[in-house]
Amino acid sequence: MNKPQQDIHDVIIIGSGPAGLTAGIYTARAFLKPLLFEGSAPGGQLMGTTAVENWPGNKSIMGPQLVMNMREQAQHLGTQIISEQIVSVDLSQRPFTLVTNNNKTYKSHSVIISTGASANKLGCPGEQDYWGKGVTVCAVCDGAFYPNKKVVIVGGGDTAMEDASFMTKYTSDITIVHIFDKLTASPIMQERVLNNKTIKILYSHTVTQVIGNGNHVTHVVVTNQKTQEKTTLSADVMFLAIGQKPNTHLFKEQLELDKMGYIVTRNGTLTSVAGVFAAGDVVDFKYRQAIVSAGSGCMAALDCQRFLETL
Fold first, then answer.
1. Which positions ≥6 away from 210 have C-beta within 8 Å?
2. Which CATH code is given to the segment(s) 8-118+244-310?
3. Domain range annotation of the chain
4. For this structure, is 142 an active site residue?
5. Which CATH superfamily, name and number, covers 135-240?
6. Catalytic residue among 10, 138, 163, 304
7. For residue range 70-101, what is the model confidence (pLDDT) as tens digits?
8. Is 124 annotated as catalytic?
9. Is 141 annotated in the active site?
10. Catalytic residue among 7, 124, 141, 281
11. Confidence at residue 4, expressed as pLDDT on a 0 to 100 scale
12. Contact 175, 155 (CB under 8 A)
């Protein structure tokens, strides 16, 4: 095992999506010399996004390019980005102790957690092949790319209902595929969809295959859960609305989490442990937008800076 790093850092940032990189930019500007650990999925969910048209200042920018721009800015200002994954943490006492997948140990007076969330997937053939090429999880982000197109939405909860209602702005060809024989969304959200004759619902069905032309989705295969009969639907896009899981497994038993596993924050980005802050999708189950994550990364950096000034 390698010898522990002897330095005690002012701040360590875990995660390299919009929240983590923005936190790196702000803490670097405050001369805190942040260390940022990229983790197993550098750049977060933006890396699987194509054109981003709702990021202020850019009419359109590819998700990976946006991440690269933020990364370069953070490094330019002094953030040290380390291509390793934090695999264990001890937040029971300061300085906090963090261990990487290379068995390196780091200590820090403060920690900003921006480990994000991972979208739940179907795991069917073709899903990963066409991820970002017609398979996506954000109708608000990508819906405008599909005017008058054939839309499939997978799920039966509030998010699926919101996605379906949102997509009626762009198209009248919307099919919801739901595994159960009735919707699970709140009554008011169900009512909006059920009263809209342009939205079709396939109950007791699942998507079991995604088919494309090599560049983009063209069809999805759905299977009736009662009869096992398969049907092929034409589709230009498939939105997954089956939830996401916050990447908080490292922090169970150490930080207060809500019933869904998201980190609980108060007074901005403060967690249940003084000196530990959280930002981005690891706390946000409502908005889930890159710009919101970036904003909360800024908040976490400012909260962290003020905390360190009190030590």
1. 124, 125, 126, 127, 129, 130, 134, 135, 217, 219, 220, 221, 238
2. 3.50.50.60
3. 8-118+244-310, 135-240
4. yes
5. FAD/NAD(P)-binding domain (3.50.50.60)
6. 138
7. 999 999 999 999 999 999 999 999 999 999 99
8. no
9. yes
10. 141
11. 47
12. no
